[in-house]
Design goal:
By secondary structure, this protein is α/β, with parallel strands linked by helices. It is built from 13 helices and 16 strands. The strands form three sheets. Strands 4, 5, 7, 8, 9, 10, 11, 12, 13 and 14 form a ten-stranded mixed sheet that branches. A three-stranded antiparallel sheet has the order 1-2-3. Strands 6-15-16 form a three-stranded mixed sheet, with no helix packed on it. Bound molecules: 2-keto-3-deoxygluconate and magnesium ion.
C-alpha cells in the first residue's frame, strides 16, 4: 500500500482547525489534527512545503518508522510547529492502519482497559454567583468533575472567564489582533481560596474540582496557592508555574500535597523527564495534537505509569474532533488514564467533523467505527475558510507583559 495524496485542510467553523488528510492507492483515507491555536498557518506551511513531498509513495503501515523519519530526519527537532505537523501524520497513519484492520483504533492499542472515560467540564464566572450557576449548568449536563475559573475583583478579565461578542460566541480566540487582558497575581492569590471555599460549601465535599493557574505564578506563589487550596481537596492544580521552569515544581511539591497537573504546552517526553522521575507531578496533560501524535503520547503514558502518574489529555475547544478522537482511543486503552478534559465543539464544528465518539452521562466513548471514527466534510469545511485569530496577551498594571 502507498500514500498517493496528502492534503491540508484549513477551516473555521467557529474557530480555526488544521486537518491533514492522507489517501492511499487503495482508497483508504486517514485524518490527523494539526491545529496550533493562533499559529495555525505556520503548521500548514511546515506540512505543505516540507512534509507532504516526503509522504507521497510511502507505505502508510510504517507508523513508527515514519515518525522517526520526520522527527530525527529533519535534524531540527521538537517545538510546537514541528510536533503538531508530525502529530497529524502519525494520527492519520494510525487511522489508516485501524481502518485497514477493520478495528477501532483502541483495539490496536491493546483493547479497552475500561468501559468509558470520565470527563471534566469548564465552569467560568465573572463573579461567584455566575460561577456557581456555571457549575450547576455543568452538573446538569452530567459532568462528574468541574474545572472552576473565576473573575478576580479589580481585574476586567481572567483566564477562562470568557467574554462574548454579544451573540454568544467567545471572542477570546477569534480576533484580528490579540485581546489584551490584565493581571494582578496578589489579587488572584487572595481571591481564589475563597472561591474554592464557596464552591465546596454549595456543592459539598465529593465533587472533583479542578483549577488552571495557566502558568501565571512564580514557584513560591504556586507553593502558597497549592497549600492554601489543600483544605478544599482540589482534584488538581494545573500549570501552576510557567512550563519552562520545571525545577520550580520541586518547591511547590515540598510545600503541599495538592495534586499537580502540567504539560499542555510540552512537545516531547524529554520535557517531562525530571517531573516524572522525581515524582513532582500527578497528571500529564499533553494532547495527541501537540505532542507528535498517538505514538509518542502512548510512550509518555507508559513512562508515567512506572511512577504512578496518570494521563489526562488536554481537551479544549482548539483540539479538533480528530485530535479529540485520537486521545479517546488512547485513554480507553491505557491503564493509567486519569480524566479527560472535554469542552465540546460548536454544532457547526460537529457537522464539519461527523464522529463516532459520544458524550453521555458525563463520560466519553470513542465509538466502534474502524479507525478514529471521524470524517471530514470537505465541502462544508471549504464554506468556512480560515479567519486570522490570536490568543489574548496579558499585561500587569504597570503595562509589562505577563504569561497568559
Ligand atoms: O489554546 C490555548 C488553550 O488550549 C488553553 O488555554 C486551554 O489551558 C487550557 C486548558 O486547560 O484547557
Ligand atoms: Mg490548561
Amino acid at each position: 500500500m502507498k500514500i498517493v495524496d496528502a492534503k491540508v485542510v484549513v477551516t473555521s467553523p467557529g474557530r480555526n482547525f488544521v486537518t491533514l488528510k492522507l489517501t492511499t492507492d487503495e482508497g483508504v483515507t486517514g485524518l490527523g489534527d494539526a491545529t496550533l491555536n493562533g499559529r495555525e498557518l505556520a503548521v500548514v506551511g511546515y506540512l505543505e512545503e516540507h512534509v507532504v513531498p516526503l509522504l507521497i509513495g510511502r507505505d502508510p503501515h510504517r507508523v513508527e518508522d515514519t515518525w522517526q523519519y520526520l522527527y530525527r530526519g529533519a535534524y531540527w527537532r521538537r517545538g510546537p510547529v514541528t510536533m503538531a505537523a508530525i502529530a497529524a501524520v502519525d494520527t492519520a497513519l494510525w487511522d489508516i492502519k485501524a481502518k485497514v484492520a477493520g478495528l477501532p483504533l483502541y483495539q490496536l492499542l491493546g483493547g479497552p482497559s475500561r468501559e468509558r472515560l470520565r470527563t471534566y467540564g469548564h465552569a467560568n464566572g465573572r463573579d461567584l454567583p455566575e460561577l456557581l450557576d456555571s457549575v450547576r449548568a455543568r452538573l446538569a449536563e452530567g459532568y462528574p468533575a468541574v474545572r472552576i475559573q473565576s473573575g478576580v475583583p479589580g481585574l476586567e478579565s481572567v483566564y477562562g472567564v470568557h467574554v462574548t461578542d454579544g451573540v454568544g460566541a467567545p471572542v477570546l480566540h477569534q480576533r484580528a489582533l490579540p485581546l489584551v487582558e490584565n493581571w494582578d497575581t496578589d489579587a488572584y492569590l487572595r481571591h481564589i481560596p475563597g472561591v474554592f471555599e464557596a464552591v465546596r460549601a454549595e456543592f459539598g465535599p465529593e465533587l472533583p474540582l479542578l483549577h488552571d493557574a495557566h502558568h501565571r505564578l512564580t514557584p513560591n506563589q504556586a507553593a502558597r496557592l497549592a497549600r492554601d487550596l489543600e483544605a478544599y481537596r482540589p482534584y488538581w492544580l494545573e500549570d501552576c508555574t510557567p512550563a519552562e521552569n520545571q525545577e520550580g515544581l520541586r518547591l511547590v511539591r515540598r510545600h503541599s500535597t495538592t495534586p499537580l497537573a502540567i504539560g499542555e504546552v510540552f512537545n516531547t517526553l524529554h520535557d517531562y523527564q525530571a517531573l516524572i522521575t522525581e515524582q513532582l507531578i500527578d497528571y500529564v496533560r499533553s494532547s495527541v495534537t501537540h505532542f507528535g501524535g498517538v505514538t509518542p503520547l502512548r510512550k509518555l503514558f507508559d513512562f508515567a505509569a512506572q511512577y504512578q502518574v496518570k494521563g489526562a489529555p488536554h481537551g479544549p475547544e482548539d483540539i479538533s474532533p480528530v485530535g479529540t478522537a485520537a486521545a479517546l482511543h488512547l485513554d480507553l486503552a491505557a491503564h493509567n488514564f486519569g480524566i479527560q478534559e472535554y469542552a465540546g465543539h460548536t454544532p457547526l464544528t460537529e457537522e464539519v467533523f461527523p464522529h463516532a465518539y459520544a458524550f453521555a452521562d458525563g463520560h466519553l466513548h470513542p465509538g466502534d467505527e474502524p479507525g478514529l471514527g471521524v470524517e471530514l466534510d470537505e465541502g462544508l469545511a471549504a464554506a468556512h475558510p480560515y479567519e486570522p485569530a490570536y490568543l489574548p496577551v496579558n499585561r500587569l498594571k504597570d503595562g509589562s507583559v505577563h504569561d497568559w
